[in-house]
Amino acid sequence: MTDNGPTAATPGGAAAQPATTTGGALLAGMVTAGLGLGVCTVSVLLLWIAAPAPAAGSPSGALHIAADLWLLAHGADLVRTAGPGAAAVPVGVTPLLLVAVPVWLLYRCAQRALSAADGGPRRHARGTGPLRRPASPGAVLGRFLGGYLLTAAAAVAYAASGALRVAPVSALLCVPLTAAGAVAVAAARTVGLRAVLPLPARARRAWAGLPPGVRAALAPPRRAAALRAACAAGAVLLATGALLVLTGVVWHAGAVRHSLLHVAPDWPGRGTVLLVCLLLLPNAAVWGAAYALGPGFTLGAGSAVGPLGAVGYPAGLPPFPLLGAVPQEAAGSPLTWAAAVGPDAAGAAAAGYAARPARAAAAARGPEARLLRWNRRATATVAALAALMCGAGAAVLAGAAGGALGTAALRHVGPSWWLTGAAAAGWTAAVAVPGALVLREWHLWRTLGRSPLAKRRS
């Protein structure tokens, strides 16, 4: 349904371009939300069918949990109560792999709606009358988001009661932000953000008033090169975190197995726990990346887990397999300090991508002036921008990977978003800026046969 949409028939009977009006965009948004809810519903119902009869509950409870999970995938917090009069316990850790379901659907369906709206003028459905111009991208996206949020509002109303329920305030904040972010990325990749949200005159005047050096640093070529370098550094950091998680699982295999058997004595329950662990693997990779960067993460009650040591674990941590892979309380050692190789590798990856424009210029076999067009200032600027972007991305992921799992000791678990972002930016800048400059000189040396610095000194 994300690849094929309704088509408008021409008077001769042939199919024309997909017709997307503002009303059609509203329906497309509602269908997109329904698809996401359907994925969660089918998954939960399959687990409900496989569960033992005494613990399975009712089908309405399974549908309620499906709505809760769909809202949790947008970043909304859940609230759990053990019974009448019991204290409410927040559940604020969002499985990042679960987030991929609504975000991918929003991205694909918004792209589809924008592409259909950009198909050119079309006639009325009856084939008579003047040509009807397509709706503007801003109007299409507005109606698309409106339909999506209408369905989300119905889901919030349905999931706002019960033993496990959604916190309405967090849902009203997080669902629109997540939907708008995914749709904005789709708009940027399809028609450009300026076609949807043109800059006001005041913003254009402010941009024109910036110093020339700042405007040159934020020009599209340098911004695109910095984004590629930041993505490369972020991918290396996440790979480092995933490798640390895998190492911890293998190193503490006995504790992981004991936790799995304790929390789920039967095979259907173990399958459910393993599925939850799979959904939380991206979260664990972010925690591992924060561990490699130095700030580490917390398991609540003021605890700290990092390469320099692990201290202050709260008593009575829940028996969960991924928590069994956490290092035991002890001081750091050269083995844990070796995790710093990951941030160094991330900075090296950013340096390689920041120096690529100079490498491309060197490979173009143009005149010497063309080889030196991407000068040292541009290379250092791209590397520094990549470090800032990598830090911003690390901060966002760290904030999304943690949250609350209780009201006392587990009030917050996971990495600190601002410490993780600052560490990622600092590590990347410390390695990427000098590394990119060195790589630039090396690429030009290989092409020119001598250093450009030596020529300038002569």
Average pLDDT number: 84
Radius of gyration: 26 Å
Category from helices, strands and their pairing: mainly alpha
Strand content: 5-15%
Q: Considering DSSP H and I runs of 4 or more, what fraction of the residues is helical?
A: 55-70%
Poorly predicted residue ranges: 5-20, 120-126, 367-372
Q: How many strand units? A: 8
Placed side by side, the strands forming the largest sheet appear as 4-3-5
Number of domains: 2
Q: Work out the helix count.
A: 21
Q: Judging from the principal axes of the Cα atoms, what is the shape?
A: flat
End-to-end separation in angstroms reads 66 Å
Q: What order do the helices and strands follow?
A: EEHHHEEHHEHHHHHHHHEEHEHHHHHHH
How is the main sheet built? 3 strands, antiparallel
What does this structure look like?
This protein is mainly alpha-helical and 458 residues long. The chain folds into two domains: 17-121 and 134-198, no CATH class; 211-457, no CATH class. It is built from 21 helices and eight strands. The chain has helices at 22-50, 53-56, 59-72, 96-117, 137-158, 168-190, 193-196, 201-208, 212-217, 220-251, 253-263, 267-279, 281-293, 321-324, 334-337, 341-354, 356-363, 368-371, 376-401, 417-448, 452-457, and strands at residues 7-9, 15-18, 78-80, 89-91, 164-166, 304-306, 309-311, 330-331. Strands 4-3-5 form a three-stranded antiparallel beta sheet. Helix 16 (341-354) packs across helix 19 (376-401) and helix 19 packs antiparallel against helix 20. The N and C termini lie far apart (66 Å). Mean pLDDT is 84; it is low at 5-20, 120-126 and 367-372.
